[in-house]
Amino acid sequence: MTTTLLNKAELLNALHVPGTPLIVTNVWDAITAKIVSETPGVKALASASHSVSNVRGLPDGEGLTVDEAIIAARIITGATDLPVSVDFEKGYAADAAGVARNVRRLIEEAGAAGINIEDSVGATKAPQFDIPTAAARVAAAREGAEAAGVPLVINARVDTLAGGGEWAEAVQRANAYLDAGADVIFFLGLGDEDKVKRALDEVNGRISVIGNPGAVPLARLAELGVSRVSFGPGTLGLALAALQRAAAQLTALGDYPDDLGFPFEL
């Protein structure tokens, strides 16, 4: 398994190309992983912790235990042969040593090829760990990956702007996380083209962003040089909106929606 997973991690890293971004349509369980992975053009998957938690009736923000998070990740990786990046929240640990242990477990027990790791302390985007502490947690994730023998792709999230903080601190954090072993910076709060350009200029590595209605269009993000775009819990929202529309149509004795016949099977 280690050799196969090593290859998946190397592939996942190689797919983060500035100007030709990896597009990951976030999934949350076995069937969504299977359906998305079988879609033409899809090269890798990513989970979204918000979705993984909510479909289990739990809140985001480490509402799952580390054991539950690893099981949830294993369900997803077991449904596809593609590399999977797991949203691992804050590492489900109070300290860096715990992050290292849990990341190693996530790799060895669930087959993660990549992770997202956050720098906020609680369930919201603020406050954040101080920069040395946050960087040490990124370094610990790298340590856990090395112990597992897998070049895990670490997508380190910077919550500063989303939490109301200052630009200079966000960039400082981004570069500190890269120095600590992150492969990509998941820079939240880049809501317009100027901010995307500025981040690309000032961060010493690849940039990952979240896409949503009203954000910079995908084609333009590619032109600017972004390396990855994900959608977080937005894809669960998309599925729920379609389900709600169908429920309204059926309840009103309307036509059967064409998608009611969508073929699926594990």
Automatic annotation (TrEMBL):
<dbReference type="InterPro" id="IPR015813">
    <property type="entry name" value="Pyrv/PenolPyrv_kinase-like_dom"/>
</dbReference>
<keyword id="KW-0456">Lyase</keyword>
<keyword id="KW-0670">Pyruvate</keyword>
<dbReference type="Pfam" id="PF13714">
    <property type="entry name" value="PEP_mutase"/>
</dbReference>
<dbReference type="InterPro" id="IPR040442">
    <property type="entry name" value="Pyrv_kinase-like_dom_sf"/>
</dbReference>
<protein>
    <submittedName>
        <fullName>Isocitrate lyase/phosphoenolpyruvate mutase family protein</fullName>
    </submittedName>
</protein>
<dbReference type="GO" id="GO:0016829">
    <property type="term" value="F:lyase activity"/>
</dbReference>
<dbReference type="InterPro" id="IPR039556">
    <property type="entry name" value="ICL/PEPM"/>
</dbReference>
